[in-house]
Amino acid sequence: MAFEGLADRLQSTLQRIRGKGKVTEADVKEMMREVRLALLEADVNFRVVKDFIKKVTERAVGQEVLKSLTPGQQVVKVVHDELTTLLGGEQSKLAVGTKPPTVIMMVGLQGAGKTTTTGKLANHLRKKLNRQPLLVAADIYRPAAIQQLETLGKQLSLPVFSMGDQVSPVEIATKALEKAKAEHYDYVIIDTAGRLHIDEVLMEELQQVKEIANPHEILLVVDSMTGQDAVNVAESFNEKLGVTGVVLTKLDGDTRGGAALSIKAVTNLPIKFAGMGEKMDALEPFHPDRMSSRILGMGDVLTLIEKAQTTVDEEKAKELQKKMRDMSFTFDDFLEQMGQVRNLGPLDQLLGMMPGAGKMKGLKNVSIDEKQISHVEAIIKSMTKLEREQPEIISASRKRRIANGSGRTVQEVNRLIKQFEDMKKMMKQMSGMMKGKKKGGFKFPFM
Amino acid sequence: MSFLKRLKEKFTAQTDAVTEKFKTGLEKTRNSFSTKVNDLVKRYRKVDEEFFEELEEILISADVGVHTVMELIDQLKDIARTRNIQDTMELKSAISETLAAMLRKDDEEGALALQNGQMTVILVVGVNGVGKTTTIGKLAHQLKQQGKSVLLAAGDTFRAGAIDQLEVWGERAGVDVIKHQEGADPAAVIFDSVKAAKSRGVDVLLCDTAGRLQNKVNLMNELEKVKRVIEREVPGAPHEVLLVVDATTGQNAMSQAKIFSQATNVTGLVLTKLDGTAKGGIVLGIRHELDIPVKFVGLGEKIDDLQAFDPEQFVYGLFMNMEEEEAE
């Protein structure tokens, strides 16, 4: 869960002040020392930290906090506001060319995740925006980089343009653009080789590709675990190429991700996407405001809701609510619910987005076993249609058959049936409670 | 036609002296770091709070890590007090001494623990994109040059193209690769590789693994399983577990070292991409807190761009400019 470390630090610092009725200047100073340490430990560039602390201290010591009735909360607000500003204010979207194809060039250091991000971005354009992207394999240096992109293309059923590794990237880009124009692709995404920002020969090659391809977006892919050097990398790439945006990768790790703040603050480049996992749909638009809430441990409910909306079918949800009310909820519905929740993404990530989940001790290091969910699925799928609709008919011999069919034990089958019945009871109580309240606001019956 | 030149460079053996390579590889690091220290020493004539504050910043900007930096600064303050050093020039050598001491310790474990008359199994682990496969390719080449017979195990069955990538390195180094399909169970690949290595009687088996973020519990369990398979098949193995760390990584490298050690008992680090401007200062903290030595450094993309880590040389490289100016 990204940024959790920073959130923890700030939270424990702020906790001490939160209880106080009045904040003195000394309090603010002490708190800022903690904030500074936390930010440095989070790999925020020390120059950025300095500026940040200065700004926040000014505001905190000034009228705003000292006169406030709830100074503790006011400090949280000040820190949060400044963090949000630092992270980039509003969310920034992908540029679109006036005439297709829109050309996107991916650049960055070795191992930042350019090829994976190229695949994810193409998937995003195809699935979310319903556009036709052409992937271009222009990394001719790293062994098997072209195969990697081709494999991803196959997985996503998207076309990959490649000419092998004996042709210059400039020529590859030229030919790819010709093809894209002739065949009316909406987007061209050029995957370039990873290179050091100080490698002049290779940086020049990128400039040549840029000249030929005339990209609408040059996205710098940055590993979110990058340390103090993130600033140098971003500055150099930006200086030489005129980068238009940043993609932050590996944010599903436990890094505190200070690099995000550093890059934004120093180069003022917008962070457009965040890589959140190894699966091809694990690419999310970067939301500075939400990320800043997350830094302060306020959870990331908006992302969760957005995810739910794209995966949970409104109609089905309504139907389900009705079923819950009149107790006609069956194992089939249960299965469907599970499927929808799973579509939201890996469960431990969902947990990370829930406010307060980071604070609950027991939950902190919990990893939800996705396998267990598959087991449940297997068990339900081994039931007959009738059994799924009327679980009460499941006798001992039926249980044995189900256990055999799913490769699980009879005990597990028993447990599941018991859980299912408990759930049904709970749902009845809940829907009883909800009667009279506004309808349609109940989105997560399963959670 | 710069790409052709690069390809040519890749395939022609480089004959540069080791030290020369190390020097050029560290050029950027050394320049920026020592220039800053020099600058500092010149600007502050007197050793005072402000001087230490700025030194602290320099070290932090090298990714050394706040805790380690504070310890270093405290040590230096002690030295300044006890030796009654007031001139910043005098403190300069104390700075390099203190840093070197933190990296050096008793350094018998610098080399790889190659077994005599028995197969050595080396497991290579790390997060995504640090350069595990590349490091294995370079290491295979190096061992081959030393006259060892080497076999590679394509244990990264997850990432698209990873097996192909290892095969290219295998060809370049002239060693065989044992592989399964993409998506196969990595433990099974490693099992087969160990069997093959045994029957062929090779000297060294290098096992590649998929990159994984250390907070993914399931993937770390998978890695433990891979290690158990090796332990079961070859008593005493794996003889080395190398954690590959990207020099551009910040404080998260500490978490990587901690958690990978819990899962696989890491015996050494490989610090890659040190030819950039990143300083890899986190190595100090890892050595200091977890006592894991750096065994190799990656200084480029060519097959012989992997060098044994020499703490002396590393620190010397960092401070070379300083020493020279002092001598003048």
Automatic annotation (TrEMBL), chain A:
GO terms for biological process: SRP-dependent cotranslational protein targeting to membrane. SUPFAM superfamilies: P-loop containing nucleoside triphosphate hydrolases, Signal peptide-binding domain. GTP binds at residues 108-115, 191-195, 249-252. Its main location: cytoplasm. It catalyses: GTP + H2O = GDP + phosphate + H(+). It is found in: Cytoplasm. Pfam families: SRP54 (PF00448), SRP54_N (PF02881), SRP_SPB (PF02978). Its EC number is 3.6.5.4. GO terms for cellular component: signal recognition particle. Residues 270-283 form the SRP54-type proteins GTP-binding domain. It is an enzyme of class 3 (hydrolase). Keywords: Cytoplasm, GTP-binding, Hydrolase, Nucleotide-binding, Ribonucleoprotein, RNA-binding, Signal recognition particle. InterPro entries: AAA+_ATPase, P-loop_NTPase, Signal_recog_part_SRP54_M_sf, Signal_recog_particl_SRP54_hlx, Signal_recog_particle_SRP54_M, SRP, SRP54, SRP54_GTPase_dom. It comes from the Bacteria. Belongs to the GTP-binding SRP family. SRP54 subfamily. Part of the signal recognition particle protein translocation system, which is composed of SRP and FtsY. Composed of three domains: the N-terminal N domain, which is responsible for interactions with the ribosome, the central G domain, which binds GTP, and the C-terminal M domain, which binds the RNA and the signal sequence of the RNC. This is Signal recognition particle protein.
TrEMBL record, chain B:
It is a peripheral membrane protein. One of its GO terms (biological process) is SRP-dependent cotranslational protein targeting to membrane. It catalyses: GTP + H2O = GDP + phosphate + H(+). Its EC number is 3.6.5.4. GO terms for cellular component: cytoplasm; plasma membrane. Coiled coil: none annotated. It is an enzyme of class 3 (hydrolase). Keywords: Cell membrane, Cytoplasm, GTP-binding, Hydrolase, Membrane, Nucleotide-binding, Receptor. It comes from the Bacteria. It is found in: Cell membrane; Cytoplasm. GTP binds at residues 126-133, 208-212, 272-275. InterPro entries: AAA+_ATPase (IPR003593), P-loop_NTPase (IPR027417), Signal_recog_particl_SRP54_hlx (IPR013822), SR_rcpt_FtsY (IPR004390), SRP/SRP_N (IPR036225), SRP54_GTPase_dom (IPR000897), SRP54_N_sf (IPR042101). GO terms for molecular function: GTP binding; GTPase activity; signal recognition particle binding. Residues 293-306 form the SRP54-type proteins GTP-binding domain. NCBIfam families: ftsY. Involved in targeting and insertion of nascent membrane proteins into the cytoplasmic membrane. Acts as a receptor for the complex formed by the signal recognition particle (SRP) and the ribosome-nascent chain (RNC). PANTHER family: SIGNAL RECOGNITION PARTICLE RECEPTOR SUBUNIT ALPHA. Part of the signal recognition particle protein translocation system, which is composed of SRP and FtsY. Belongs to the GTP-binding SRP family. FtsY subfamily. This is Signal recognition particle receptor FtsY. It comes from Fictibacillus macauensis ZFHKF-1.
